[in-house]
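Worked Example 4.2. Consider the chain below.
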Amino acid sequence: MPIVLFRVDERLIHGQVVVGWGGPLHADRIVVVDDAIAESAWEQELYCLGMPPEMEAQFVSSSQALEAFELWRGGPKRTIVLVRDVATARRLADSGLLRGEEVNLGGIHHAEGRTRVLPYLHLTADEVASLREMEAGGVAVSARDLPGSHRVHLKDLDAQG
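Applying the procedure from the previous section yields the following structure tokens:
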């Protein structure tokens, strides 16, 4: 089964991802790619509290994700891959693994240096530049908070804020 969603979302596993995306996409598994959480059993337990029993959670580092990505793509489970930030998505894209895939931008909240581009999406100039480089490398980038919401392509994000 394919990777049914590759999403950048600061909150990682939460209701919008589990119910809003996981239900309609019939996801069997959520994989969180995060170096810190991959080392923290108690954080993994916290994230799993929001998971339904029929859905599996897996937590891996960026380097483990590079090794496992093709297995997830070709495996039997419908998988959602989550990363916390654009930098991690960029690291995976630079490996070539995301070429031909779509990266969904979910919730990235306001922080110093970030500009609001959508109500749920704030980006720095460096993050926008990174996303544009990913797209130039063959990765489609768009923002959409839920499957039924309007998809905003990267080229249109500047005009949305």
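The chain has a mean pLDDT of 94. The first strand starts at residue 3 and ends at 8. Compare this with Example 4.1 before moving on.
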